[in-house]
Every structure is written in structure tokens, then in C-alpha cells.
Design brief:
The protein has about 475 residues and is of the alpha/beta class. The chain has a domain of about 280 residues: Type I PLP-dependent aspartate aminotransferase-like (Major domain) (Aspartate Aminotransferase, domain 2). It contains 14 helices and 19 strands. The longest helix has 22 residues.
């Protein structure tokens, strides 16, 4: 088949669409956009295809190059505009760009087979559903399947600080953004929120829970409370428990593997579906294993694999893709009316996802993530000794959180410092991200004090050095600015 040749517009006209934006465009956009945009910098193009660097335009029209330590909301694990992904997408677009949902395409079949192969623990060889939106729809699909298999139970256990999407339903499963959202989510009576094992801020006042590990003296009292909910203290019987094995939005908080082990046992004992939201921790984000669940199995010889698992972010190679995988033991399958959207069988997205998986495997992406993560974590731990404001450093691979505090003894969150660092970071050549706000019922911020270090997994040694050097410069300047 020949290359694509325009038949209505000229190549020059079409090439201008992504090429840039002028002041008039921006003024008109501000009039017409229903969404408010607060990012002052506009990404224009990759500095080099497949790198962690992007060229951006500021409001004055000036161009600058930044290293994106957020991977554009943790999505671009392979960097900006990766050539292999773009080529796979281009080849698919030469053939088909859309089919209706219940139509099978070669790329969809191959992607689903590959995902089933890569699934961890008892999920390996399971059944797969994909969507064109991301983790929110994948989590909704998991909830639907749990309802189908639970014999009438219609309540879900979720955790403080969790984030599982922003639809009118998944918003109920996520940590509330009190007094900020100007509408009510639907279905709060179907969700029971339980305490998450945040070891650095233990509700039972253990003080040695650092780096995501529980205090040596901890007796998992937090799990005893969760177990009570599962076994009958909740107002309704649970169809499922939804948990991030490492809370992302909440602040890069790993649940101790001992907690997950007990949670799995209790869910099996009570006949409750255990659902892991690994939307951010999939695709080798935590190092040399495809998921955090697999990491625990291979390194700690503990099988904490759930009944269902959801993925998004890096799984689509930069394209919107959400995934649900269900254990082979779950015999039920979705009917045509139970799980579909108009665009969820899009062959372009499936081609991008499959290419991303193959690129990651061949290039040993997880090994690079492990190596760069160890290098960066080592330096952050050194900074923790040097700076009173760094209270904790958590995470595996390139899934790192640096928690900022006003005092290491009291652990009072230093939200103002994290916000100042995010604000000034682009002046120093990088994008930084932060944890979502944890608010009181009246909308006062309790904490938003974790700076996230989650760059593309393809970063080089020099990229890692640049991030570390810039982070320390930004930290010092932000501390000085707040004096």
C-alpha cells in the first residue's frame, strides 16, 4: 500500500495543524474552551523522538526545552513521540482507523493475547477487556464484573487517599476533593471508605514506618479494622475491594506486602472480589517487573495477585488505553450491552499498545528503570540526611515520592514547599508533579506535600543526573522563597 497522500487539503495545510499556535489562536481559545487550563506552557514537539525532553512555548511565544519528570501525567514511559510507536500507528492507519466495538481486528487480538501472557500470578492467561479512555473505565468494568459474580452484593470497599477515576461513579471510589468540585458524584451509598496503610503517618502512632515499609513493631492494626469491615462491619456486603498496591495520587504510598497478603486471604475466605488498580504501577514503572504484583511474587516469593487488575498510563505507548484483566477462574464474560463504548475497539490504540509492549521487552526497559531508579533513590536518601524538610523517600523503580515536612519529628506536611517547587521547576528546565490535595470537609488543605519523580523510563544517566541536580537547586530556591 502506498504512503498516505491527501486528497482534499494540501500537505502544507495539514502540516500546519500541529505545527504551532499564535496569540490570536490562544485568545480565541480562552473565549471558547469550557475547560479552564492553568498550565502556562504549551508543549509543541519532542526535542528528539523517543526522549524525555519536550519543546514548549510560553505565553510570550518563547520556546524552551524541558525534561518532563511527570511523563505527562505518568503516560509517556517511552518518551515523547517514540518512533516505533508512531510507525506502528502509521502502518495501522494505512489499513483501518476505526471499527465498531464488537468487531475484531488483528491488532486487538494480538494485544489481548499479549496482555494475558504478561499478567501476574493467578491472573496469567486470564480474560482481557480494553477501552479507549483509561483507568477510570477499566475500574468501572472491574466493578461491573464484580457485580455480575457476587450474587447480589453491590457495595465496594475503597481506601482513604485512593484515586480510581473521575466519572460520576469512579469519583465515589476516589478520595473526595471536598468543597472544590461543584457537583455530587452518584452512588456514594455503594462505597465504604477504609484506612489505607500509610506507614509514615500511621494512625496507630508507630514511628518507624519509613520508605514504604511497616514499623518492625507494627501488628497491622490497620488491617484488623479493614478485616472487620469485610466481615460485616460495613453497612452492606462487599462485591469487591478496590486498592492501589502503591497509592499514586495519594502520595506514592506502598501498602506493606504483609497487608496485601492478609487482604487477599480474607477476600478469598469471604468470597469478595479483590481488584488491584495498577494503572500507574504497570508497564515496568516500578522496575524490572511488569507490575508491582509480579515484583512481590518474584522478589519476596509472595503471591498477592488479585482476582482482577487494571492498567492504563504507559500501557498505550502514549495513546489512550485502559485494560482490565480477570482471573481465569472467573467464568463470566461481558455481553454486548454490558461493556462497550463506540471507540473502544479502535485498532490504532491497540497497535500502539502492542508496539509499546514489544519495544519495552526488546529494549529491556524495566532494567533501565531499575538502574535509574536505584541511582536516583540513592541520591534522594542522601538529600534526606542533608535537608530537614525531606521526611521520607518512597517507591520502587521510577515511581518515587519525596515527602516534604516542616519538621522531621512532628512530620507536619510542608505543602507550601511542594507547591513552590512545582511552580518554579520549569524555570530550571524540568516539569515536576505533586500528590493530589487531601482536604477537610470545608476545603482546607491538610496535605499536598509529596513531590513525584516519575520520568519516562527511557531516561539516560545524564538525564538522571540533570533531574537530581535541578531538583536540589529547586529545593534550595523554594526554601529560600518561603522564608
Amino acid at each position: 500500500m502506498k504512503d498516505i497522500e491527501p486528497i482534499v487539503l494540501t500537505k502544507e495545510e495539514l502540516e500546519r495543524i500541529p505545527a504551532g499556535v499564535n496569540e490570536e489562536d490562544l485568545m480565541e481559545f480562552e473565549k471558547h474552551s469550557l475547560n479552564s487550563f492553568i498550565e502556562p506552557l504549551i508543549p509543541i514537539e519532542a526535542k528528539e523522538p523517543g526522549s524525555a525532553w519536550v519543546r514548549v512555548r510560553d505565553k510570550e511565544g518563547n520556546m524552551k526545552e524541558l525534561l518532563d519528570v511527570t511523563s505527562m501525567n505518568w503516560v509517556l514511559s517511552l518518551g515523547f513521540a517514540h518512533p516505533d510507536i508512531n510507525y506502528a500507528v502509521y502502518q495501522q492507519m494505512l489499513k483501518l482507523t476505526h471499527v465498531r466495538y464488537n468487531t475484531l481486528t488483528p491488532s486487538r487480538a494480538k494485544l489481548i493475547n499479549k496482555l494475558a501472557e504478561l499478567a501476574p500470578g493467578k491472573l496469567k492467561g486470564g480474560r482481557v477487556s480494553i477501552n479507549n479512555e483509561g483507568g477510570g473505565l477499566a475500574n468501572e468494568a472491574a466493578m461491573k464484573l464484580a457485580l455480575m459474580t457476587s450474587r447480589g452484593a453491590n457495595n465496594f470497599g475503597v481506601f482513604w487517599g485512593g484515586y480510581h477515576g473521575n466519572s460520576l461513579i469512579t469519583g465515589c471510589a476516589s478520595q473526595p476533593i471536598h468543597s472544590v468540585n461543584r457537583f455530587e458524584y452518584f452512588g456514594h451509598d455503594h462505597f465504604t471508605r477504609m484506612p489505607y496503610p500509610y506507614c509514615y503517618r500511621c494512625l496507630w502512632k508507630y514511628k518507624e514506618g519509613i520508605r514504604g515499609k511497616k514499623d518492625p513493631g507494627c501488628n497491622l492494626e490497620c488491617f484488623d479494622l479493614v478485616e472487620s469491615y469485610i466481615k460485616g462491619m460495613a453497612p452492606k456486603q462487599f462485591a469487591g475491594i478496590i486498592i492501589e498496591p502503591n497509592q499514586a495520587g495519594g502520595g506514592q504510598i506502598p501498602a506493606p506486602v504483609e497487608f496485601l497478603k492478609k487482604l487477599k486471604y480474607t477476600c478469598e475466605e469471604e468470597g469478595v472480589n479483590l481488584i488491584y488498580d495498577e494503572c500507574q504501577t504497570c508497564f515496568w514503572r516500578t522496575g524490572k517487573y511488569f507490575t508491582l504484583t509480579e515484583r512481590y511474587e518474584k522478589e519476596q516469593n509472595v503471591d498477592v495477585s488479585p482476582d482482577m487488575i487494571t492498567y492504563t498510563k504507559g500501557i498505550g505507548g502514549g495513546f489512550p488505553l485502559g485494560v482490565l484483566i480477570a482471573s481465569p477462574k472467573i467464568r463470566k464474560r461481558f455481553g454486548p450491552s454490558e461493556e462497550h463504548t463506540t471507540f473502544s475497539s479502535n485498532p490504532v490504540l491497540a497497535a500502539a499498545g502492542l508496539a509499546a509492549l514489544r519495544v519495552a521487552e526488546v529494549s529491556k526497559l524495566g532494567e533501565n528503570c531499575e538502574k535509574m531508579g536505584q541511582k536516583m533513590t540513592k541520591r534522594f536518601l542522601e538529600m534526606q540526611e542533608e535537608y530537614e524538610v525531606i521526611g521520607d523517600v518512597r517507591g520502587e523503580g521510577l515511581f518515587i515520592g519525596v515527602e516534604l515536612v516542616k519538621n522531621k519529628d512532628t512530620r507536619e506536611p510542608f505543602t507550601e514547599l511542594s507547591e513552590e517547587m512545582i511552580l518554579i521547576a520549569p524555570e530550571h528546565g524540568i516539569f515536576l508533579g505533586e500528590s493530589m490535595p487531601i482536604l477537610t470537609m470545608r476545603g482546607q488543605i491538610l496535605r499536598r506535600n509529596v513531590v513525584k519523580i516519575k520520568p519516562p523510563l527511557i531516561i539516560t544517566e545524564s538525564d538522571a543526573d540533570f533531574i537530581l541536580e535541578r531538583f536540589e537547586v529547586i529545593l534550595k530556591e523554594a526554601i529560600n522563597n518561603l522564608k
